[in-house]
Amino acid sequence: MQTPTRVGNLKEKASFKNPDEFYFKMINSKTVDGIHRPEANNKYTEEERMLLKHKDMGYIFQAVQSERKKVERLSSTLHAVDDKRSNKHIYFAEDREEAKEIRSRIGQSSSTPQFGNIPSRIKRKTASSYKELESRKERVKNLEKLYADMALQKELKKPGRKRKLREEEIVNSASQTVYKW
């Protein structure tokens, strides 16, 4: 309950108010049971909202394709410096001793360059490129999830009978909600 001094303060504040003061929100809102609520002003029809969502889906799909291309391009330019090349040569030996000799010869005359003496700036650039590649892959994954969610919401808005499946009805347990049309 309000104290008399508080009511008096509110009356005094109201008397100092400018009677010519006007805000558009005074017209576009109303009080319901003493609670100030804005009027529901739907600018768009249901068809217009569906069209806007479809355009949003197109934008997200374009972003997914663009990021996939960037990931592909970046992964093709990066080569695994740390990995050893796989040796695809096949050597034939008559007995075990000859096989050991061939193995030791291959180990000695390894034509792969020594990677221990790579300059640190190149190592940093390579590391940052791999970090960028991982972040782009994560972005692609998030955009694909967003696109799938938007597509599901679009399908759910369409007319027709659909229902959410219960836990015991789902054949493959998935983390997402499963619907049946």
UniProtKB/TrEMBL annotation:
InterPro entries attached to this UniProt entry = SSU_processome_Utp11
Keyword annotations of the record: Nucleus, rRNA processing
Listed GO biological process terms: rRNA processing
Q: Is Transcription regulation given among the entry's keywords?
A: no
Query: What's the domain of life for this entry?
Result: Eukaryota
For the keyword Transit peptide, the answer is no
Tell me one Pfam family matched here.
Utp11
Record localization: Nucleus, Nucleolus
A single GO CC term for this protein reads: small-subunit processome
Belongs to which family? Belongs to the UTP11 family.
Designated name of the protein: U3 small nucleolar RNA-associated protein 11
Originating organism: Aegilops tauschii subsp. strangulata
